[in-house]
Design a protein that fits this description.
mainly alpha, 2 domains, 58% helix
Length: 130
Amino acid sequence: MRYPEGGGLTAERRAFREGIRLQAGERFAAGEKTTVIAKDLRVSVRSVERWRRAWREGGWDGLRSARPANSPTITDAQFAVLVEQLSKGPSAHGFDDQRWTLARVQTVIHRRLRVNLSMATVWRPLRRHG
């Protein structure tokens, strides 16, 4: 399940689900039917169909977990640019007063770095870097 404010699956749960997809991939290679695979792995037929398409298009890599579903973030280099922008003050970015809020920082990130982040994801690097 995906959540807009972070959340989602733990690394262990992602690895578990990847294992199920890889088991399905072995069965795709053996030529088994979608309904049989779905029943044996206790997943929906629709999921197996989606995995089969990913397997056909991308092979085994198409079945692997790429990363957490909702983890957009900024790199250290982007954070350095953000610090430089924030040091100019809110008025330099068109805000009426001299208060930094998460919403304003989010706006600066979007304008200058071209990255869309949720409020929670804006807070994490700020907290991490003090």
